[in-house]
Amino acid sequence: MNNIDLTPLYRSSIGFDRLASMLDSALRSDTSSGGYPPYNIEALGENRYGITIAVAGFEQSELDIQVERGVLTVRGRKTEDDKGRKYLYQGIAARAFERKFNLAEHVEVTDAELRNGLLNIHLVKEIPEAEKARSISIKDTAKSLEHKQS
């Protein structure tokens, strides 16, 4: 139903092979997690970002953060056994979760902290010096020929 033709983009762009799969996964509705746990993504500066995930009830040992092939994955899995408890009402969700975030090229996770039930993940975009814009000088071949002839 959601078909996007990226052919015009590929005519003038090189190296955006992952773009189609990223768009496809973004357009697919993620009903498996049901919006749990809620999160924020912030721009903290020109090249700094932050992800805050509400993980109330999870301990540090029950959370796992991994980065692989440009995808940041955050997982939570409760380890304590609730079988002995008899809830009259259970409004605090403590179910397992997995959240994935696609990272742009050169975006790296610098650190993470758990404070007051919020998992804060800090990211920075560091473009290598070799890939930054640089000016290319143009030689004037006419002047060098005149100089050689005199």
Automatic annotation (TrEMBL):
The keyword DNA-binding does not apply. The lineage of its organism: Bacteria, Pseudomonadati, Pseudomonadota, Gammaproteobacteria, Alteromonadales. Keywords: Stress response. Belongs to the small heat shock protein (HSP20) family. It holds the Pfam family HSP20. Residues 30-141 form the SHSP domain. This is Heat-shock protein.
